[in-house]
Write a structure and sequence with these properties.
The chain is of the alpha/beta class. The chain has helices at about 5, 15-25, 35-50, 60-70, 90-100, 110-115, 120-140, 160-170, 195-205, 225-235, 255-265, 315-325, 330-340, and strands at about 25-30, 50-55, 80, 100-105, 145-150, 180-185, 210-215, 220, 245, 250-255, 275, 295, 305-310.
Amino acid sequence: MNLENLLEENPYLKVSEQVKAQLEGAIVLITGAAGSIGSEISKILNQQCNCKLILLDQAESALFDLQQELLLENRNNHKIIVGDICDKDRMEHLFKKYIPTIVYHAAAYKHVPLMEAHPYEAVKVNVVGTKIITDLSEKYKVSNFVLVSTDKAVKPASIMGVSKRIAELYVSSKNKNSTKKFKIVRFGNVPYSSGSVIPLFKKQMKRVGALTITDKKVSRYFIKMSSACQLLLEAILFVDCDLLVGNMGKAINVQELAVKLISDAGLKYPEDIEIKYIGLRPGEKLHEELIYENEILIVENNSKIKKYNSTVNTMKIALIEALCCLKSETQDAEIILKLKEIVPEYISNN
């Protein structure tokens, strides 16, 4: 992706006929439905597909806003559920009552510096919550389970990244045969999503008159919201892989992005708006990666999606289960040691 494409408006996403056919009459559970990705998928499916939506989130205000937006479409094909993915009994009741056939698991903590200060919470939501939803999806025999993941899970340097990597490992472990019902979709940063750098830069230009960047060399992969949603929706079409990665092109230098935003605002750098370098924050890397060396590329099906098969060490599953038994009073250092035991390549940048 280049800078011009990155800053263009998201095009309208038309759901393919193959996806519509797969979703016909389906009961679709979306966790984290009030978040940036979850809400966009919810709106797309509400408008274009003949399926029942079970929309779950613990953020009641954001969930209420989503509900009001969906009601404007005059369609009664959704059920709003306020609930916590870490509440195992509540989630069991939800699965038993609605019997979802497809699950999009988007619920997660994703802000890197915040999670560096709260490793227990990152593990609770990103690992324990994922394990609960994954186990129930297996128990109630869903036809497709799709985990929303991140490039920060590859050779992680942060609590958030390593917790998402462990979530990936656990989800992949559920594929017991050649048919891959449990899938991971991994992509980079989504512009204009909650916490994205672009809205932050725009606020800084208005309020502070200067932009803050961690390092001149820092780069990130970006994917448009429409492309991310297309990737997630089309994941259910593939049974020969357990990992899908968006083709995002080259990583974009964040300083170049900042200068472009300044120019697009009719201002000049550095005369009107300066850039301040604040150093990498806890858990941040200069550059992200998209795949591991042992993730095997299957023949590319199109230019937008790359399909991989990953390998899971089954010995790690017992370690993940032990991690999920940690108590809230567990010291951060003990949690981090257990994370490193499961993901040895995790090297903390904090």
